[in-house]
Structure to design on (401 residues):
């Protein structure tokens, strides 16, 4: 008798679970299957812009309308689909790769996935961003590579693809340090470095996020010779130069000892009570034309870099015959004013992975072309991340010839 009762209870439980499964399955389906197609979308209007078009329209009055679907080609043979909820009467069609007329078919779709007859509208997108950028693309030779610049007035996400004919046979490939340039800035600028001082043919293409791409520009370039300067430097102390926080430990020599991401006290760190911009002076041993530099910040407590005395706004000065009074006078030439940009733009004390990756690699800066060769270099801190004048640097590196 007991066995029979258990069997009945087990059967009841299985029946209940089975019923629950059916109910769960039904939750994902419309309660009523509507095989009647909804009415079409009407009163369609298009506003064309660069590489895209914005549609507005009137929805049909069907009670079970679910969404509106637009089907179109961004370029011949490349189809794209956009869906908009029934709670809105507008949608944006993106990714057009040309300025040709494009026919767009628009369907109203009900909850049973039954589509209306298509309504059609023709859109005429304006010049896509990648073509605007390509038309303004300029490439100029610099130390160890070249600079690339173009206009991007619509702030579209673009990439400038660079390749080189290494064998001189018309085959263009990617090589070490020949990275693409990615940006959505209104004016895209980028530097390609690490190229040998050889005359070679380079190819440049502008591409957008839908993989539309421009024609190819072919340019023969010979980058200027560049090398990382050997750090056989010394500290050239002048009146007015900064006082170190811990003399004999946190000295200037720590910024050219060739070791990155060192811990305290193997960094340069000046007194925190400084009330004016602080300077330190280096003797490079001989005059060099400078092409670029890298500043590695000191890693602070909490594993932060964009804090305390690390450089934020600073200047670099050059001289071959500095005034021994220490005055920053006509014996010095300002080689540039530089600002460290935090990639994330996050609040003080908050740093993303991208922020820290850049800091660990070293904040990179280029020197403008046209300056002569200088033996003595002065680093002048205008403002640190704390908003005061003391400064800390882990490593300082220069390139040039």
């Amino acid at each position: 008798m007991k066995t029979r009762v258990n069997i009945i209870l087990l059967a009841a439980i299985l029946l209940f679970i089975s019923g629950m499964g059916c109910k769960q399955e039904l939750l994902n389906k419309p309660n009523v299957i509507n095989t009647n197609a909804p009415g079409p979308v009407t009163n369609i209007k298009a506003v064309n812009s660069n590489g895209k078009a914005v549609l507005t329209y009137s929805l049909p009055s069907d009670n079970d309308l679910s969404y509106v679907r637009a089907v179109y080609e961004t370029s011949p043979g490349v189809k794209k689909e956009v869906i908009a909820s029934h709670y809105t009467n507008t949608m944006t069609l993106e990714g057009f790769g040309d300025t040709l007329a494009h026919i767009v078919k628009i369907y109203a779709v009900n909850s049973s996935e039954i589509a209306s007859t298509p309504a059609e509208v023709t859109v005429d997108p304006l010049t896509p961003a990648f073509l605007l950028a390509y038309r303004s693309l300029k490439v100029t030779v610099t130390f160890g590579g070249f600079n690339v610049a173009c206009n991007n007035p619509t702030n579209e996400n673009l990439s400038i693809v660079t390749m080189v004919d290494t064998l001189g046979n018309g085959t263009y490939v990617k090589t070490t340090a020949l990275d693409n340039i990615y940006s959505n800035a209104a004016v895209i600028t980028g530097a390609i470095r690490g190229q040998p001082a050889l005359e070679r043919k380079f190819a440049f293409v502008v591409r957008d996020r839908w993989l539309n791409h421009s024609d190819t520009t072919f340019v023969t370039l010979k980058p200027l010779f560049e090398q990382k300067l050997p750090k056989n430097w010394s500290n050239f102390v002048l009146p007015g130069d900064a006082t170190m926080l811990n003399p004999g430990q946190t000295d200037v020599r720590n910024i050219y000892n060739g070791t990155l991401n060192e811990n305290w006290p193997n960094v340069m760190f000046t007194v925190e009570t400084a009330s004016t911009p602080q300077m330190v002076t280096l003797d490079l041993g001989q005059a060099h034309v400078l092409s670029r530099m890298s500043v590695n910040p000191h890693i602070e407590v909490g594993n932060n870099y964009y804090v305390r005395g690390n450089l934020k706004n600073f200047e670099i000065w050059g001289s071959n015959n500095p005034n021994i009074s220490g005055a920053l006078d006509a014996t010095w030439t300002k080689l540039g004013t530089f600002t460290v940009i935090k990639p994330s733009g996050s609040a003080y004390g908050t740093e993303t992975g991208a922020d820290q990756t850049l800091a660990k690699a070293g904040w990179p800066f280029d020197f403008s072309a046209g300056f002569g060769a200088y033996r003595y270099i002065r680093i002048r801190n205008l403002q640190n991340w704390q908003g005061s004048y003391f400064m800390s640097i882990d490593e300082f590196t220069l390139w040039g010839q």
The domain at 42-123 is CATH 2.60.40.10 (Immunoglobulin-like). The chain has three domains: 42-123, 129-225, 228-400. The chain is about 10% helix and 40% strand.
